[in-house]
UniProtKB/TrEMBL annotation:
Signal sequence residues: none
PROSITE patterns associated with the record: ABC_TM1, ABC_TRANSPORTER_1, ABC_TRANSPORTER_2
Organism of this sequence: Actinocorallia libanotica
Subcellular location: Cell membrane; Membrane
Domain of life: Bacteria
The protein's name in its UniProt record: Dipeptide/oligopeptide/nickel ABC transporter permease/ATP-binding protein
InterPro entries associated with the record: AAA+_ATPase (IPR003593), ABC_Ni/Peptide_Import (IPR050388), ABC_transporter-like_ATP-bd (IPR003439), ABC_transporter-like_CS (IPR017871), MetI-like (IPR000515), MetI-like_sf (IPR035906), Oligopep_ABC_C (IPR013563), P-loop_NTPase (IPR027417)
Length: 607
């Protein structure tokens, strides 16, 4: 908050404090004086008794300006309440509606933003009737589209975070996600924006009253005082000075304070932002599985059965016909270069492929199609551990509450039981003093502790499968090792199967029994990790050669794989690895090899 010690922030704070104090005490101290008619001293200029002169009733203009503070601020507060009450829910709606309704609401917000503000204000004011009420409604409604758009943008950002994805996997409903995860995390920037809006409302209302459209006599606000005194500006300029200065200083104070707070929190621009592209509406389940996802799996004992999984985004298909299974208690690794489709495969297993991705093929958890599982079933049977543990935890909630929520929401546990379970699970992942850790916020944890907390969250149910997508990339090497050991231990002690996604072959071969090697969206080889050095696919061999271990001769340059993996849209007709493969035959460039006995290659290594 040292950024709040800027001159503009301090000036804003001072002006707002003075305005608020005047709003409270103004009518008490100067109300009677402001109302006292004095027919003998009407329309006077500056004098020792009346520093800012008098109006056409001989009433003191300084007293009237000070007493009008409450009315001016109160009306601005009412207008801002209207803006907030309509703008925040409207902007948050797309996060809770189904894809079609979300698209419609987003479109509505964008159209309203494009509508001229002045017309909107006048239209709303006309409907609400003349006078202060119409002005308040007009100014309040005019700011709704801007606030709704900001809310939508903020909500989208939070809704796209890993901790919301994690909450979805844990089975949280759309309204629970909005109330528990989205709103608390956008509250701060919204409050700052609303503070600044108060300043704009004050200026807007004063303008309407000045034009004679706002507050009507005998009531008065600063705008009304301006309206009454403006014709005398060339004769007695001081009579206009009071209300004009009051409007300018108070309006500027709120705007400065709001903007300074926003800058200090560095979270969001407060000033009206440029129209954003319509955001992708959020769907409850973005995974589209074909209806009646087929018969029982070929290997009914498998915890996870994936058959012909294909993930597409428009015309691009980053994951193609991927098939594999994971047996109970088995730890399977997926490796491959960046962009080979590992993460999308993991997301598809959790039903979390982002919009507008579509998923075809079969994903069966415990023999049942993913689409048939209820949220509660999915939440308790599957745990997902993402790359960035900070992003996977809701920063606004204590770690213990986040864990306990899984048990109250999905296991029907009481708050007390849930809390006990959360502390027990934090202890199980070897966090020292779990009771105290449960009371802390994620930012008070180190990276390794956070990842342990995420794993503990996954263990709140009794997961049959833990999917960990690059769980240690954000951690330093020693912490990486401990977290991976923990995952392996959980896998051993709970019997949960594991799917470990990593670009680090050494990590996978050390912890997993079996490895799936992905290239350009397909599994090109599936083999026991003990066989990696004897892999038959030239790509797997190249990956192994490019992966250093303790025996690697560091005096020689590390082997690299020449060329680059084709982008999803440019995958060639034959084997996608052929252009980089030293063993490629003519056939490799024209015919795609289908996997046979876990190997998709026309000319495999033999020794
Ligand atoms: N939301 C999306 N929209 C469109 N394309 C996507 C989306 N997410 C991923 N892709 C594309 O899918 C391909 C595979 O991505 P994915 O994240 O699964 O790769 P990865 O193997 O996990 O890579 P990394 O190791 O870098 O995470 C990439 O080429 C990526 O551009």
């Amino acid at each position: 908050m040292s950024r709040m010690r800027t001159p503009s922030a301090l000036a804003g704070l001072l002006l707002v404090l003075v305005t608020l104090v005047l709003a409270v005490i103004g009518p008490w101290l100067w109300g009677a004086e402001a109302e006292r008619f004095d027919p003998l001293h009407t329309l006077q200029g500056h004098s020792p008794e009346h520093p800012l002169g008098t109006d056409d009733g001989g009433r003191d203009l300084l007293a009237r300006t000070l007493a009008a503070t409450r009315q001016s601020v109160w009306l601005a507060v009412l207008a801002t309440l209207i803006t907030t009450a309509a703008g925040v829910p409207l902007g948050a709606l797309p996060s809770v509606l189904g894809p079609r309704a979300a698209r419609f609401t987003s479109g509505l917000i964008d159209s309203l933003v494009a509508f001229p503000v002045l017309l909107l204000a006048m239209f709303a004011a006309l409907l609400a009737g003349a006078g202060a009420r119409g002005a308040v409604v007009g100014i309040g409604v005019a700011a709704v589209p801007g606030l709704a758009r900001l809310t939508r943008t903020l909500a989208d950002t939070v809704a796209a975070s890993d901790y919301v994805a994690a909450a979805r996997v844990l089975g949280a409903g759309r309204s629970a996600i909005l109330v528990r995860h989205v709103l608390p995390n956008i509250a701060e920037p919204l409050i700052l924006t609303i503070t600044a809006n108060l300043g704009y409302a004050l200026l807007g209302l004063a303008t309407l009253s000045l034009l004679g459209l706002g507050v009507q006599p005998p009531d008065y606000d600063w705008g009304r005082l301006l309206h009454d005194t403006l014709p005398r500006v060339y004769v007695d300029p001081e009579v206009v000075a009071g209300p004009a200065l009051a409007v300018a200083l108070a309006g500027t104070g709120f705007a400065l304070l709001g903007e300074s707070l926003a800058r200090a929190s560095a979270r969001v621009p407060v000033a009206p932002v440029a129209p954003s592209a319509p955001s992708a509406p959020r769907g409850e389940s973005r995974t589209v599985l074909p209806p009646g996802c087929g018969p029982l799996p070929e290997a009914p004992e498998a915890v996870l059965e994936v058959r012909d999984l294909t993930v597409s985004f428009g015309g691009v298909t980053p994951v193609r016909e991927v098939s594999f299974s994971v047996a109970p208690g088995e730890l399977v690794g997926i490796v491959g270069e960046s962009g080979s489709g590992k993460s999308l495969t993991a997301l598809a297993v959790g039903g979390l492929v982002p919009h507008p991705g579509t998923v075809a093929g079969r994903v069966l958890l415990g023999g049942r199609p993913l689409a048939e599982l209820t949220r509660r079933e999915l939440g308790t049977r599957l745990a997902m551990v993402f790359q960035d543990p900070m992003a996977a935890l809701n920063p606004a909630l204590r770690v213990g509450s986040q864990l306990a929520e899984v048990a109250t929401a999905h296991l029907g546990a009481s708050r007390g039981q849930a809390r006990k379970r959360a502390v027990e699970r934090l202890g199980r992942v070897r966090l020292p003093d779990p009771e105290a850790q449960a009371r802390r916020y994620p930012h008070e944890f180190s990276g390794g502790m956070r990842q342990r907390a995420v794993i503990a969250m996954g263990l709140m149910g009794e997961p049959e499968l833990i999917v960990a997508d690059e769980p240690t990339t954000a951690l330093d090497v020693t912490v990486q090792k401990r977290v991976l050991e923990l995952l392996a231990e959980v896998n051993e002690t709970t019997g949960a199967a594991g799917l470990l996604i990593s670009h680090d072959l050494a990590v996978v071969s050390q912890h997993c029994g079996r490895v799936l090697v992905m290239y350009a969206g397909r599994i090109v080889e599936e083999l026991p990790s003990s066989e990696l050095r004897r892999a038959r696919h030239p790509y797997t061999r190249a990956l192994v050669a490019a992966s250093p271990d303790l025996e690697t001769d560091r005096s020689r340059p590390l082997a690299t794989i020449p060329g680059r993996q084709p982008a999803s849209a440019e995958v060639p007709a034959g084997c996608a690895f052929a252009p980089r493969c030293a063993r490629a035959l003519e056939r490799c460039r024209t015919d795609r090899p289908e996997p046979v006995d876990g190997l998709a290659c026309w000319n495999p290594e033999t020794a």
